Amino acid sequence: AALKLAGEKQLPVLLNFTGSDWCGWCKLMDRSVFSQTQWQEFARREMVLVTLDFPRNPSIVPAKYVGRNENLRVAYGVEGFPTYMVVDSDGKTVLGKLGAAQEITPAMFIDQLKDLLRFREIEISKRVKTLSPEKGKAYRQAIKAYKDTEAQLMKWLETRPVRNDANLKIYEDYLTRLEAAEKQLGEF
Q1: What pLDDT score does 186 carry?
Q2: Are 184 and 142 within 8 A, CB to CB?
Q3: In this structure, are residues 117 and 163 in contact, taking their beta carbons and an 8 Å threshold?
Q4: Rounded to whole angstroms, what are the CA distances from 188 to 5, 20, 143?
Q5: Taking residues 42-58, what's their average pLDDT?
Q6: How far apart are CA 165 and CA 171, in angstroms?
Q7: Is 158 exposed, middle or buried, given 0-12, 13-18 or 19+ CB atoms closer than 10 A?
Q8: Cα–Cα dist 85/50, whole Å
Q9: Over residues 126-155, mean pLDDT
Q10: In the β-sheet with 13-18, what is the strand arrangement from edge to edge?
Q11: Strand partners of residue 72
């Protein structure tokens, strides 16, 4: 039902993997972010929310959802709680993953989400429409440069490089390239 709604409204989905009755960080996020008006107004307009609860008390989640929740936890590689997976309206494209923070506010969490959402094709297209054709093309190229560099960094990190001066230089180069791409994106 959530994916159908997300598809109809072209909204991203926030999958909230939580342990509502035992996870201290989950309770902190509920108290500091999700119960706040600023978050609720943003979420109502900008996202489809899905809570996938893994409580210790089995009476909290109906039995028919326990298996579904576990299947989604495994499918998205969730290993700790809370985990907030952000997927596009197709339900397949993972836009990113967020977690909890001790001093988090609704505004901070919203900013983190907006940072992930800016790479949705629908958001890119909206932005391009506000730019001249040349700037629109440059904007798309800047996004591609950022995403390509980020993907290369992730692929390199998956090799679990040995910690040494040469690899530190490679890592710092990736960060420099990401910062440059981020700066370029900020110019649009």
Answers
A1: 86
A2: yes
A3: no
A4: 31, 41, 11
A5: 97
A6: 10
A7: exposed
A8: 10
A9: 94
A10: 48-53, 13-18, 83-87, 94-98
A11: none
State both tokens at 100.
Answer: 């909890």
DSSP 93: -
Q: How do the domains of the chain map onto residue ranges?
A: 2-117, 121-186
**Residue 78 identity (one-letter amino acid):** V
Tell me which CATH code domain 2-117 carries: 3.40.30.10
pTM for the predicted model, two decimal places: 0.82
Q: How many CB atoms lie within 10 A of CB 99?
A: 13
Assess contact for 82 and 26: CB atoms under 8 A.
yes
pLDDT at 103 over 90: yes
Of 129, 150, 138, 152, which is closest to residue 185 (Cα–Cα)?
138
Q: How far is CA 92 from CA 6, 9, 75, 112, 177, in A?
A: 12, 16, 10, 20, 28
Distance from C-alpha of 65 to C-alpha of 42, rounded to nearest angstrom: 27
Question: pLDDT tens-digit profile of 117-139?
Answer: 988 999 999 999 999 999 999 99
pLDDT at 100 over 90: yes
pLDDT in tens, 2-45: 999 999 999 999 999 999 999 999 999 999 999 999 999 999 99
